[in-house]
Protein backbone atom coordinates (compact mmCIF):
# COMPACT_ATOMS: atom_id res chain seq x y z
CA UNK A 1 0.00 0.00 0.00
CA UNK A 2 1.42 3.39 -0.97
CA UNK A 3 0.22 6.81 0.18
CA UNK A 4 1.37 10.07 -1.42
CA UNK A 5 1.41 13.12 0.85
CA UNK A 6 3.64 16.20 0.87
CA UNK A 7 6.45 17.62 2.93
CA UNK A 8 5.74 21.17 1.80
CA UNK A 9 3.49 23.80 3.32
CA UNK A 10 2.53 26.04 0.38
CA UNK A 11 1.73 29.09 2.51
CA UNK A 12 -1.23 31.10 3.74
CA UNK A 13 -4.58 29.85 2.52
CA UNK A 14 -3.51 26.21 2.31
CA UNK A 15 -4.86 25.00 5.66
CA UNK A 16 -7.18 22.37 4.17
CA UNK A 17 -4.40 21.04 1.93
CA UNK A 18 -1.93 20.85 4.82
CA UNK A 19 -4.41 19.16 7.18
CA UNK A 20 -5.33 16.60 4.52
CA UNK A 21 -1.69 15.71 3.86
CA UNK A 22 -0.88 15.50 7.59
CA UNK A 23 -3.91 13.27 8.11
CA UNK A 24 -2.78 11.02 5.28
CA UNK A 25 0.64 10.66 6.91
CA UNK A 26 -0.94 9.62 10.21
CA UNK A 27 -3.31 7.21 8.43
CA UNK A 28 -0.33 5.55 6.75
CA UNK A 29 1.50 5.22 10.07
CA UNK A 30 -1.48 3.59 11.76
CA UNK A 31 -2.12 1.35 8.74
CA UNK A 32 1.50 0.18 8.92
CA UNK A 33 1.13 -0.65 12.61
CA UNK A 34 -2.18 -2.45 12.16
CA UNK A 35 -1.47 -4.29 8.90
CA UNK A 36 2.21 -5.03 9.45
CA UNK A 37 1.36 -8.02 11.61
CA UNK A 38 -0.38 -9.53 8.56
CA UNK A 39 2.65 -8.96 6.33
CA UNK A 40 1.15 -5.96 4.53
CA UNK A 41 3.69 -3.22 3.92
CA UNK A 42 2.62 0.41 3.97
CA UNK A 43 4.75 3.21 2.56
CA UNK A 44 4.26 6.93 2.24
CA UNK A 45 5.95 9.22 -0.27
CA UNK A 46 6.61 12.87 0.48
CA UNK A 47 7.55 14.44 -2.87
CA UNK A 48 9.28 17.78 -2.96
CA UNK A 49 9.47 20.58 -5.50
CA UNK A 50 6.29 19.80 -7.44
CA UNK A 51 5.74 23.18 -9.04
CA UNK A 52 3.07 22.58 -11.65
CA UNK A 53 0.08 22.95 -9.34
CA UNK A 54 -2.14 25.95 -8.70
CA UNK A 55 -1.61 25.79 -4.94
CA UNK A 56 1.66 27.79 -4.99
CA UNK A 57 1.61 31.58 -4.94
CA UNK A 58 3.88 33.28 -7.47
CA UNK A 59 6.25 34.45 -4.71
CA UNK A 60 6.57 31.03 -3.10
CA UNK A 61 6.92 29.36 -6.50
CA UNK A 62 9.77 31.69 -7.47
CA UNK A 63 11.49 31.24 -4.10
CA UNK A 64 11.28 27.42 -4.20
CA UNK A 65 12.42 27.29 -7.82
CA UNK A 66 15.41 29.51 -7.04
CA UNK A 67 16.32 27.25 -4.09
CA UNK A 68 16.59 24.31 -6.51
CA UNK A 69 18.34 26.28 -9.25
CA UNK A 70 15.26 26.25 -11.48
CA UNK A 71 13.39 28.99 -13.28
CA UNK A 72 9.65 29.50 -13.66
TrEMBL record:
It comes from Candidatus Venteria ishoeyi. Keywords: Oxidoreductase. InterPro entries: NAD(P)-bd_dom_sf (IPR036291), Sc_DH/Rdtase_CS (IPR020904), SDR_fam (IPR002347). The lineage of its organism: Bacteria, Pseudomonadati, Pseudomonadota, Gammaproteobacteria, Thiotrichales. Belongs to the short-chain dehydrogenases/reductases (SDR) family. The keyword Repeat does not apply. Pfam families: adh_short_C2. PROSITE patterns: ADH_SHORT (PS00061). GO terms for molecular function: oxidoreductase activity. This is Short chain dehydrogenase.
Amino acid sequence: MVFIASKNVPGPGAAAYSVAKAGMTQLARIAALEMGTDGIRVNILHPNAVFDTAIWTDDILASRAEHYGLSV
